[in-house]
Design brief:
Strand content: 15-25%
CATH topology: Rossmann fold
Shape: globular
CATH class: Alpha Beta
Strand order of the largest sheet: 2-1-3-4-5
Number of strands: 5
Largest sheet: 5 strands, mixed
Order of helices and strands: HEHEHEHEEH
Radius of gyration: 21 Å
Length: 190
């Protein structure tokens, strides 16, 4: 009886080792994903026009300083217009002629630091239809989580999250957004 329990515990150990190795390999694969961002249409998914404008212009400027072909969605569609226009064939062809094939959707995911990158890989049109429930800044919050979804040629290619903590007003949110995204740009997106 003693021999069989020892043999059983050894068998459990040997079968558990490959599972641990598989999990480590999956984590390594996730970390090594390279976006290779060279161009982008920036789409801020905020309800307030001033929030959308601030995010789109800030991100556009950051990408342009890195010599990337970039255009904010505000230059393509009217304020208050349907965002699904950006996924139409005619707009996509026009952007391709300008050398742009990547769409970057930016939204406020919430005001908690525990959010993680969404694993769902919606189509571009479906992602453009989704609205945002959150503003760029609200009173009595100290953290804002921004979600980035990257689409290339209409297909989801990458998702990322930037968390800005220690904020007390809208200007501070934008300042922290700029600092955090610039670091992320050079580390993960290029």
């Amino acid at each position: 009886m003693f021999v069989s329990s020892v043999a059983l515990s050894q068998e459990v150990q040997t079968t558990a080792e490959p599972v641990k190795k598989e999990k480590k390999e999956k984590k390594k694969k996730k970390e090594k994903v390279s976006l290779d961002l060279t161009n982008a249409v920036i789409i801020g998914q905020m309800d307030k026009p001033q929030d959308r404008y601030s995010i789109e212009i800030t991100l556009t400027e950051m990408l342009k300083t890195r010599q990337m072909a970039t255009i904010p969605s505000l230059n393509i569609m009217k304020i208050g217009g349907e965002p699904t226009v950006l996924a139409s064939d005619s707009v996509m062809q026009l952007l391709k002629s300008k050398g742009i094939d990547t769409y970057v959707l930016v939204s406020v995911r919430g005001y908690d630091r525990r959010f993680k990158v969404a694993q769902n890989q919606d189509s571009l049109e479906m992602a453009l239809n989704q609205g945002s429930l959150f503003e760029l800044y609200r009173e009595d919050i100290v953290s804002v989580s921004f979600e980035f979804k990257f689409y290339r040629n209409g297909e989801f290619v990458f998702g990322d999250m930037v968390k800005c903590g220690g904020v007390s007003d809208r200007d501070q949110v934008m300042k922290k957004f700029r600092n955090k995204v610039e670091k992320r740009l050079d580390k993960k997106w290029r």
